[in-house]
UniProtKB/TrEMBL annotation:
Enzyme Commission number, as recorded: 6.3.2.6
Signal peptide location: none
UniProt entry keywords in alphabetical sequence: ATP-binding, Ligase, Nucleotide-binding, Purine biosynthesis
GO CC, one annotated term: cytosol
Family to which the UniProt record says this protein belongs: Belongs to the SAICAR synthetase family.
Pfam families: SAICAR_synt (PF01259)
Swiss-Prot/TrEMBL catalytic activity: 5-amino-1-(5-phospho-D-ribosyl)imidazole-4-carboxylate + L-aspartate + ATP = (2S)-2-[5-amino-1-(5-phospho-beta-D-ribosyl)imidazole-4-carboxamido]succinate + ADP + phosphate + 2 H(+)
Xref: PROSITE patterns: SAICAR_SYNTHETASE_1
GO biological process, one term: cobalamin biosynthetic process
Name listed for the protein in its UniProt record: Phosphoribosylaminoimidazole-succinocarboxamide synthase
Species this protein is from: SAR86 cluster bacterium
Protein's gene: purC
Pathway where this protein functions: Purine metabolism; IMP biosynthesis via de novo pathway; 5-amino-1-(5-phospho-D-ribosyl)imidazole-4-carboxamide from 5-amino-1-(5-phospho-D-ribosyl)imidazole-4-carboxylate: step 1/2
Length: 236
């Protein structure tokens, strides 16, 4: 597979075209950011651990009925993925109240929901990724009702599959975000699933093992990602 032109560059990943029009090369960089890009730093080894972490999770999801854009890892920090037309929305599932939800609604941190809480957000750093609902998505043409229904159903399936995986590793999947993109045949799970885009707590200690360590200046960010990977049984 030949790596060609830069297609897009995000806060922590870059996408490149390849000699196959249907495939892109996703490069995970060591760059780390928080607060809509206001806080930035390069953390050595983060790109590599995130590439491996994402590959492990995507393959596990594929084995459990969730179709994704992931094809294969091709280097320590690069993977091949199916080219998608990404929807400009993020799907967020919360199993426990924390983070922006508590600030937005003034609720106590740590409340465990009987049923997972689902929210849509518009992908727009300049606007702070605002909360949106189904009607916004349809009114502005960001997606159809059929796509909304699919994203909700698929995201709850992801939650069921991954909560079981993390629980068996003595970890709590607190919340996470996922994104979807269109192919000619429908929607696929796209982007990534790494500790950059979810919250993970140690079940015994309650210690944060995700990007909150970077947000809150707790240190040992990459090391915490490695702890999670080890607990989940990844080879790193």
């Amino acid at each position: 597979m030949i790596k060609k032109d830069l297609v897009s560059k995000g806060k922590a990943k870059s996408l490149y075209s390849t000699d196959d029009d249907g495939l892109l090369l996703m490069e995970y960089r060591d760059d780390t950011s928080a607060f809509d890009g206001k806080k930035k730093e390069a953390l050595k080894g983060k790109g590599e651990i995130n590439n491996k972490f994402n590959g492990f999770i995507m393959k596990h999801l594929q084995q459990n009925g969730v179709e994704t854009h992931f094809v294969e890892e091709i280097s320590p920090n690069e993977s091949l993925v199916t080219r998608l037309d990404m929807l400009p929305v993020e799907c967020v599932v919360r199993n426990i109240a924390t983070g922006s939800l508590c600030r937005r609604l003034g609720v106590e941190e740590g409340i465990k929901f009987k049923d997972p809480l689902f929210e849509f957000f518009l992908k727009d750093d300049d606007l702070g990724d605002p909360l949106i609902n189904d009607n916004h998505i349809i009114a502005f043409g960001w997606g159809t009702q059929e796509e909304i229904d699919f994203m909700k159903k698929q995201t709850f399936l992801i939650n069921k599959v991954l909560c079981t995986l993390f629980d068996e590793a003595n970890l709590i999947l607190v919340d996470y975000k996922v994104e979807y993109g269109r192919t000619s045949e429908g929607l696929l799970l796209g982007d990534e699933f790494t500790p950059d885009g979810c919250r993970i707590w140690d079940k015994d200690t309650g210690e944060s093992l995700d990007k909150d360590r970077f947000r809150k200046d707790l240190g040992d960010v990459v090391e915490s990602y490695q702890i999670v990977a080890h607990k989940l049984g990844m080879e790193i």
